[in-house]
Amino acid sequence: MKKSVLVLFGGCSSEHDVSLKSATTILNNIDRSKYDVHPVGITKEGKWLLYTGNDFNLTNNGWEKNGVPAVLSPDSTQKALIICKSGAQEIITIDIDVVFPVLHGKNGEDGTIQGLCQLAQIPFVGCGVLSSAVSMDKAFTKIAVATKGVPQAKFVIVKEKELQNVDEVIAKIENTFGYPYFIKPANAGSSVGISKAKNREELLTGLQEAMKHDKKVLVEETIVGREVETAVMGNDEIVVSGVGEILAAAEFYDFDAKYNNNESKTVVDADLPNEIKEKIRGYAKDVFDAVEGKGLSRVDFFVKPDGGIIFNEINTLPGFTSISMYPMLFAATGLSVTEIVTKLIELASL
Known about the structure:
Layout: E1 3-10, H1 16-29, E2 35-42, E3 48-51, E4 67-72, E5 80-85, E6 90-95, E7 98-102, H2 112-120, H3 129-136, H4 138-146, E8 155-159, H5 166-174, E9 181-185, E10 195-197, H6 200-211, E11 216-221, E12 226-234, E13 238-247, H7 255-259, E14 265-267, H8 274-290, E15 295-303, E16 309-315, H9 325-331, H10 337-346
Parallel strand pairs: 1-2, 1-7
Antiparallel strand pairs: 2-3, 3-4, 4-5, 5-6, 8-11, 9-10, 9-11, 12-13, 12-15, 13-14, 15-16
């Protein structure tokens, strides 16, 4: 018997459009001989719609026009998608075996949608509630990873209320480590609201910009090095891919450099000594374990000119777009995208 899989995409997040691209890849590669697929999009306003069309190029097919109101029931005795046709006059329920949340950023990989699945008692793809929340919050990730002794950049955490005393905040940062700084919202995905500050004016501007995306900001020392990434898959038995490298067209790999700049490039087999690659893969397992990860994650590092390795961040619902490293890294091991998606669905758990 086929499993019934609910694929969630879109979402109330600054990475809504990236989610559409990721879901396009997954919906076009999911094995229909094994799974009955129910694609549900969440609009930027938060409306849930069951997509009824046959064209899964979600970025330009006007999917919302082919949507029927639907919600995932939190009632664990139902384990169902509730569809409302003709207003509220016709209610249909579809049994759901697995939820695949193809949602990036807030309300997608921060534990919120995972909590709904937990309430509904429906197995889901990816990390659990605590793991997702900790990994989404870059500050808490730092604290968790420190328990494993994995090297990471020095950092200062700044909260919104602290900006009422800007001079004190600036002094705290400048007294901890020197310019330039990377400024990141603590909870806003891996590419949004990030800036680099080479002086006090840019630091203040960067803090204000980051605060538009979250009430807590991480200020990190700048690490000069190559940006590399690994893909992790598994629950009890963890598999780590090879080590890929990001060749960013911009000064750093922000949202625009990642998704809009055609000059940015990715290499699935970084030109690094094998001993460094193996150390990176070992650190990736340590990070995944530190946050109690399961299912999948992408773990990013810097490699300094002297060969030193610095943990950058973990992404518990990495992109599945045509330029995303997660599927490319496992494809390099011989897995097709369909095989990757199948493995992830079979790893789904509570």
